[in-house]
Amino acid sequence: MSSPTVKLNSGYEMPLVGFGLWKVNNETCADQVYAAIQAGYRLFDGAADYGNEKEVGQGIARAIKDGLVKREDLFVVSKLWNTFHDGDKVEPTARKQLDDLGLEYFDLFLIHFPVALKYVDPAERYPPGWTNAEGKIEFSNATIQETWQAMESLVDKKLARSIGISNFSAQLIIDLLRHARIRPATLQIEHHPYLQQKGLVKYVQEEGIVVTAYSSFGPLSFIELNMDSAHSTPPLLEHEVIKSAAAKHGKTPAQILLRWATQRNVAVIPKSNNPTRLSQNLDVTGWNLDQSDIDAINKLDLGLRFNDPVNYGFNIPIFV
């Protein structure tokens, strides 16, 4: 089984369903990537901040060596971390990430957050995280325009086929589009029934930018981070609206949540180390929810955001 694709404004085709690499342990990462390729996944969504790009590359290399795929069959996504926004740091950082992955180019390279932090030499600490060695936030003076121009140069030099953004608000996107020579191909955002961001999704899609959802299962990804809101919010996978739709269509609650997104042309990047769930998570495009199902799920919106710097104790209220 494989995923259908959506055409990006860069001209390339991106799978609508991919495998997310956030919180994939270094010890198991290579095997999980290999297993996902065996199961039919072709899009892998990673980041420098995840700290597992070398292992991701090992899994990809093994799959290519064993003849499961060719490089051109895969769509590899990564992200530029906040400490590398200065214009002269973007390319060296991208080259380091590509070297870690063992690849010559990214299919898609994103700005991870619209937050420029003071540069940290990878030789000193990598991935560098949000704070300096003293545990304090130090901002850089790099503007989004400066960073974006450096991102555009990655396309010129064939280090990235497409470039995009993550965790950007509509206001920042409007500003970015004023000066962008190469328009962002995708916007990646937290998106689930508890946080639907309908206005942002509508605006971005009308601008020809593909939306990718992360944390499609809502609070599930954040429980292990001891986030109070994740513990106090009813799990989406156990919500009666989701379970009712699952029973109706003979699918799992996870499949219902993923189909709710993909049916509206929002790409998804779930992960699992369970072979059965791996296959189930790919099977979220060949069937449709009824409009009554979608309407019921749409009513679950709480505006509840989990992946916010403020929730991690950092006074960087980018979503206010």
Automatic annotation (TrEMBL):
One of its GO terms (molecular function) is D-xylose reductase (NADPH) activity. Residues 18-300 form the NADP-dependent oxidoreductase domain. Its EC number is 1.1.1.307. One of its GO terms (biological process) is D-xylose catabolic process. It catalyses: xylitol + NADP(+) = D-xylose + NADPH + H(+); xylitol + NAD(+) = D-xylose + NADH + H(+). It is an enzyme of class 1 (oxidoreductase). Pfam families: Aldo_ket_red. The active site is at Y50. PROSITE patterns: ALDOKETO_REDUCTASE_1, ALDOKETO_REDUCTASE_2, ALDOKETO_REDUCTASE_3. Keywords: Carbohydrate metabolism, NAD, Oxidoreductase, Xylose metabolism. CDD domains: AKR_AKR2D1 (cd19115). Substrate binds at H112. Pathway: Carbohydrate metabolism; D-xylose degradation. The record marks K79 as: Lowers pKa of active site Tyr. It comes from the Eukaryota. Coiled coil: none annotated. Belongs to the aldo/keto reductase family. Catalyzes the initial reaction in the xylose utilization pathway by reducing D-xylose into xylitol. Xylose is a major component of hemicelluloses such as xylan. Most fungi utilize D-xylose via three enzymatic reactions, xylose reductase (XR), xylitol dehydrogenase (XDH), and xylulokinase, to form xylulose 5-phosphate, which enters pentose phosphate pathway. This is D-xylose reductase [NAD(P)H]. The lineage of its organism: Eukaryota, Fungi, Dikarya, Ascomycota, Pezizomycotina.
